[in-house]
Amino acid sequence: MESTPVLLESKSSPINLLNEMQQLRLLGHLCDVTVSVEYQGVRAEFPAHKAVLAATSKFFKEVFLNEEPVDGPRSNVFLNEVRVADFASFLEFVYTARVEVEEDRVQRMLEIAEKLKCLDLSETCFQLKRQMLESVLLELQNFSESQNSEEESAARPGTVPAAKAERDPPDCSGASPEGPAAKAKEKA
Questions:
Q1: Residue 155, SS3?
Q2: What is the per-residue pLDDT across 24-49, written as a single tens digit (0 to 9) for each?
Q3: Where found, per UniProt (predicted)?
């Protein structure tokens, strides 16, 4: 009697793998590459894992697949014109699939994602920029609508429409020509 195959799939394994790789990187364990970044005289070095960088960045994949064999335990990659904070955020994203940055840095994160050919980060930045733009447009629309309603309500109380003013000239005597019934309608 033949057994039916079943699928064993872990929903938590990818997250656990990322978390463990992040911990290894933060502790400097099993890191086989050092990425040096420099921007306007500010320089920093980041230990990382070639496999993680190559899996998340086509730029790094090309670098590592085309590099000459290294005689030491670790190879080095130098990136100039990359801000230290931006590369640190990039690393956090590729190791955790999330990173928190200020709104004004989203464009820079998109630029580093494009420079390093990191599709996941590019898509994430584009989605966030679209949400931010939609939010601003919604705020502008709400502001415009509130301005229009304020203008309309400000124009109503003291004005009489021109057509009514032409039909019913004001009565200076204070008495209504139609009598008490017309007065009751006006009050209502």
A1: helix
A2: 999 999 999 999 999 999 999 999 99
A3: Nucleus
CB contact set of 79 (below 8 Å; sequence gap of 6+): 35, 36, 37, 38, 87
Structure tokens, 68: 């000459």
Q: Could you give the CA distance from residue 104 to residue 40 in angstroms, rounded to a whole number?
A: 19
Cα maximum dimension of the chain: 109
CB-count exposure of residue 79 (10 Å: 0-12, 13-18, 19+): middle
Strand-strand pairing, 33-39 and 75-80: parallel
pLDDT at residue 70, as a whole number: 65
87 within 8 A of 46, measured Cβ to Cβ: yes
For domain 13-101, say whether CATH 3.40.50.720 is its number. no
Phi, psi of 75 (to 5 degrees): -100, 165
Sheet containing strand 75-80, edge to edge, reads 42-48, 33-39, 75-80
